[in-house]
Amino acid sequence: MQLIRTTLRLNEYLKKDVEKKAIDEGKSLQELFNKALEVFLKVEAQKQARKIIFKTHNLGVALDHLSRADFYESP
Length: 75
Fold this sequence. Notes:
- 45% of the residues lie in helices and 0% in strands.
- By secondary structure, the chain is mainly alpha-helical.
- It has helices at residues 12-25, 29-48.
C-alpha cells in the first residue's frame, strides 16, 4: 500500500472530535481518516449496486408432456 500526502481543510469541531477519538483508541489521525474513507466508499458502492431479482409467475399446469401431435393436425 502506497501512502500519499495531501492537505485537507476540516471543520474545527470535526478535527477536535477525531483527535480525541484517536487518543482514546491509541490510533493516529491517518488511521482514523483512512478507515472512515474506506467505510464511506464501501457504503456508497453498496448503494450503487443493484440486486438482481428474478420474479417468477405461476403459469398453471406444466405442459412438459405434450408432443408435436398435440399442436399440429395430421396431414
